[in-house]
User: Fold DUF1308 domain-containing protein from Leptidea sinapis.
Amino acid sequence: MIARNPKSLSALSLGKASYGARSILDQAKDYLECAQLYPCMYKPPKIVFEFVSGIEKNLAFKLKGLGVVVKGDIVPSSQKENLHEYESSDEDSLRETRQLEGLLLQDLPLSPNAEETRIDILNLDVTAMMAYVSNMTNGHCNFIFKQEVLTQQSAWESERPVKPILEKLFEGKTLVCCRTAWDDFEKIMNTLGGSMEKQRAMELREKLTIYDDDFGGVDDYPRKMLKVRGNVRMRSKIVFNFGHRIKAITVSANEGFVRAAMQQGVNYAVFIHESRALTEGKEASASKIL
Assistant:
């Protein structure tokens, strides 16, 4: 948000200031460069400058040409710019000047609508697959289990069903997972899963595409150097790094990993849902709520 006088902003952008003073154009370039270094959902965030006191038309066009979204009242330019004052023998400077001349002649929109960021690939973590096939999330949450954590999850499921959320999220998306995630999920199913849960797992397998753990190339430096400690387990690192390499949203209940990774300066595109365990095998020893 910028509150300076429109004339002062324009004068500063034309070099009419003391030595070393930085114009709004210089600041815009810094913000745009920073946005490229810190993408959100695999795209650089949009840079929005809001001018509460207004901005002159010529300067607004220049900012738009750089890729900045301009908000605020557009006022007529106080003086006509002589762009040729800035021509030099340097080829890059000459090219930039001519591009700017073209921008000033165009009736460019000053506040374009932001393109909707849509990612159609979902990377399923083990916790997401368990929540999807669990008996608890498929109409069998009316139990009091001997395990307190399962009883608590059943109560949460009655209040906030997870399966409808996942089904809505999965609709129209490509579902993938890495080999480690599927192999670990399969081991858990073979050990703890009931017959109905195993059937749902088979149906989920038909919707999934499984890739090798190293698919998608090499991890970038921050994710490669993510230290395995505390809530950052090796399996989770493999699953989330796989999702990042293929530019997918990782669906997981592992909020602990996401927070621990953020503390190390690493962010992931993730959809967090509530955790749900496999419960079909525990129903025989549980008390049913009528």
